[in-house]
Amino acid sequence: MRASSRLIFPALALMLAGAVAAQTPPPPIVKTEGLKQISPRVHIIPDNSVPLVPNVGYVVGEKAVLVIDTGLGPRNGAAVYEVAKKLGGDKQMYLVTTHVHPEHDLGAQAFPAGTKLIRSNDQVKDIAEFGLQLAEVFAKRSAINAELLKDANFRKADITFDKDYDLDLGGVHARLTAMGANHTTGDTIIWIDSDRVLFSGDIAMRAQPAFASPHSSLKRWMASLDQLESLKPGIIVPSHGPTGDGAGFITGYRTYLAEVRERAAAEKHAGHSADEAVASVTAAFGDRAPDKGRLTGAIRAAYAEAPPK
Ligand SMILES: [Zn+2]
User: Fold this and answer.
1) Taking CA 241 as the corner, what is the angle to CA 236 and CA 244, rounded to the nearest 5 degrees?
2) pLDDT, position 19
3) Helix, strand or coil for residue 202?
4) How far is the CA of 206 from the centre of ligand 1 (A)?
5) How far away, in angstroms, is 76 Cα from ligand 1 center?
6) From ligand 1's centre to the CA of 101, what distance in Å?
7) What integer pLDDT is reported at residue 309 of this predicted model?
8) Nearest 10 degrees: CA dihedral of 152, 156, 157, 163?
9) What does the pLDDT look like over 168-202, one tens digit per residue?
10) N-to-C CA span, the chain
């Protein structure tokens, strides 16, 4: 009895340790050595699909550099800024974030005072409404997250805008557009017309769309996809995951969200509750929507927005 349990236990412990190791994601550190140029004026640091790491962007003009997203906390922000300096030297630095979630925005305080942070008024609203709530959730997930987010706080904007902001970087322009409540209220896209590069934030990417805010709207999201498509992007840099050629991510999201909308509306029409709609639409998608949490968010938004019976 004793001998066999001695034999079994270490084997089981090893298996469990292996399972835990497999589930623990790599630390959320921006790997600056991955920096690469994707068009004449645009460089990115890919996220390598590591959770809580964003794709970081740089638009390099003759007189200024625009940085897009900061990484999680000041340590990542400092590393992202070092790359900006390498690319732009003493040029004026601007910073914009695709939205105010911690891995996109909470490294801003590590940029020097001379950097100009540009925010849509919707991002200012998001910060006022939700503050550091999500940062606190992330910090509780792991010791490294807690360490990276220690003393992290939102940086005040130097420039704010309502709907669109045209930034002249010298020989290249970046157009910043506030997209309304998709993933968050403050979703901002950045369009580099000369290079046909679109930083789409979380509005179009490979992973399923995340309805992360109580204000997230499927109706708004569908309209955003039309707006993104009308730009005819050559390259889409989403805020997470691989970059895409052409409009593939946009049409993928539209097909998925249209089906969610149609099925959720049918459920509502049939007099079923929101919970019943979640169950039946989730079953209908099956393996086509592996992220059940994200699917549920989309179904609830669609159900709420569907016309009453
Ligand atoms: Zn986010």
Assistant:
1) 30
2) 45
3) coil
4) 14
5) 17
6) 5
7) 74
8) 90
9) 999 999 999 999 999 999 999 999 999 999 999 99
10) 66
Tokens of 226: 């039309």
Could you give the CA distance from residue 183 to residue 294 in angstroms, rounded to a whole number?
11
Banded pLDDT at 22 (limits 50, 70, 90): low
Distance from Cα 242 to the centre of ligand 1, integer Å: 16
Alpha carbon distance 149, 71 (integer Å): 11
Cα 287 to Cα 45, 290, 295, 302, 309: the distances in Å are 31, 6, 11, 20, 29
Q: What pairing do the DSSP bridges indicate for beta strands 159-161 and 64-68?
A: unpaired
Question: What distance in angstroms lies between residue 57's CA and the mean position of ligand 1's atoms?
Answer: 16
| 92 Cα: distance to centroid of ligand 1 (angstroms) | 27
**DSSP conformation letters of 221-280:** HHHHHHHHHHT--SEEEESSS--EETTHHHHHHHHHHHHHHHHHHHHHHTT--HHHHHHH
Distance from the alpha carbon of residue 203 to the mean position of ligand 1, in angstroms: 10
pLDDT of residue 25: 86
